[in-house]
Amino acid sequence: MKFRSVNEIEEFSFDNAAILKFLLSDGTMEFTFSGALVRAGNSQNSRFQDMYCGETELRLENARIARLVKEGMKYYDADGNLQREVPDEDVPAPAVDGVLKRIGKGTVFTMVIDSVESGYACEFGIDVPKEDDEEDVDTFWLCVLFDRSVAEWDRYQSPA
């Protein structure tokens, strides 16, 4: 039996969920997560407690990327003095496809959702391994506007 939750994205936590697959095609953004949490208030969660589920497929329909930002950094010396600062930067259009390919290997550390006039707005904070050193990460903020969300999973795991 497959569980299916429609327009209840706020009833999930993707914090620390690894992205196993990411695809953006014809206005549909699809994620496959490992480690997602179905909150107690989700209509498909009859246990009334937050529950981990196996692989979770999240589909955002009529998805539009509103903004993709690479987070900057601050470098301090051992005494706590700021040495240099790298500001946040919007990912330029020619580089967006490359960053989106990298997101498929990332981990979501936070997600913020809100209703907007034309559906929903969701911002994912994603740590993505660097291409030249997988021990180091780049942090991206992916802001997406969409009309409808559909989450599906096959089973629950032990309680959170």
Strand order of the largest sheet: 1-15-7-4-3-12-13-14-8-11
**How many H/I helical runs?**
1
Order of helices and strands: EEEEEEEEEEEHEEEEE
Strand residue content: over 45%
From the N-terminal CA to the C-terminal CA, the straight-line distance is 22 Å
How is the main sheet built?
A: 10 strands, antiparallel
Helix content: under 10%
Average pLDDT, rounded to a whole number, is 92
How many beta-strand segments?
Answer: 16
Structural class label: mainly beta
Unreliable segments of 5+ consecutive residues: none
Radius of gyration equals: 17 Å
Net shape: globular
Structural commentary:
This protein is 7% helix and 57% strand. Strand 3 and strand 4 form a beta hairpin. The model has no long low-confidence stretch (mean pLDDT 92). The strands form three sheets. A ten-stranded antiparallel β-sheet has the order 1-15-7-4-3-12-13-14-8-11, with helices on one face. The longest helix is centred in the middle third of the chain and has 11 residues, at 93-103. The protein is globular, with a radius of gyration of 17 Å. By secondary structure, it is mainly β.
